[in-house]
Amino acid sequence: MAQVLPHLLLQPGDLPEYVLVPGDPKRAERIAESLDGAVRLAANREYHSYRGTYRGVAVGVTSAGVGAAGAVIVYEEAIRAGARTLIRVGTAGSLSDDVVAGDLVVVLGAARGEGVSRQLVPIEMPAIADADVSAALWAAAGEGAGRAHRGIGLTVDAFYRGVLDLGFETYAAAGAVCVEMECSALFVVGTMRRVRTGAVVAIDGDARAASTGDHDPHRDLVRAAVDREIRVALDAAVRLSSRSGS
């Protein structure tokens, strides 16, 4: 019998090729509700896993919690369980006046402001999403109503600001359009393990205000954006599957 993976409580082969990785277990459940024949495979800590089909394509879902260090555990074990394309479905704060709450961003790459990827690969290695996955997400985001952007994100460990400057204005001036807590680690793991990765995030507010406590991610326009990004990620999986013939 194959060894059970210690955190996801899955076995090799439990997950299909295409796996969506939200942070919130409740969002994982919301994604599973969009699947046909969805079954919950396991639930341990913040890691809840499902499997089903969407428009005939087998899709898995595993929640990754908050923050890169715990999320990397999910990415590594999901790959061992069968994932070959990982798509983050998350939320982020805006670093640009052109990107507002309720918008979507397809994250093409991310500045490595978190700590875990620095323990995995040299700092000179970039954190870049797979081009085909990003293209599929961008094409899916262009269908239907709602605004979407694509660009470089910033991944950090801290949510609330302490006495040190988080550097948001500097990264914004350099061209980063949003900030969140997992993308760069996902992209690094994907490159390192030779699997495809991508990310679409719903903007839930201005990160510069959120870091000081002015943050409400539970507004209706944010919920609507999360629903839209779920459809975008699922549609992207279908597009990728049709191109590969799988």
Q: Write the CATH homologous superfamily.
A: Nucleoside phosphorylase domain
- Physical arrangement of strands within the biggest beta sheet: 5-8-7-6-9
What structural class do helix, strand and pairing data support?
alpha/beta
Radius of gyration: 17 Å
What is the string of helix and strand elements? EHEEEHEEHEHEHEHH
- Count of alpha and pi helical runs: 7
How confident is the prediction overall: mean pLDDT? 95
> What is the level-2 CATH architecture name?
3-Layer(aba) Sandwich
Q: What low-confidence regions span 5 or more consecutive residues with pLDDT below 50? A: none
- What's the overall geometry? globular
First and last CA, distance: 27 Å
Number of strands: 9
The biggest beta sheet reads: 5 strands, mixed, barrel
Predict the CATH topology: Rossmann fold
Number of domains: 1
CATH class: Alpha Beta
Share of helix among residues? 25-40%
Strand content: 25-35%
Keywords summarizing the entry:
246 residues, alpha/beta, Rossmann fold, 5-stranded mixed β-barrel, 7 helices, 9 strands
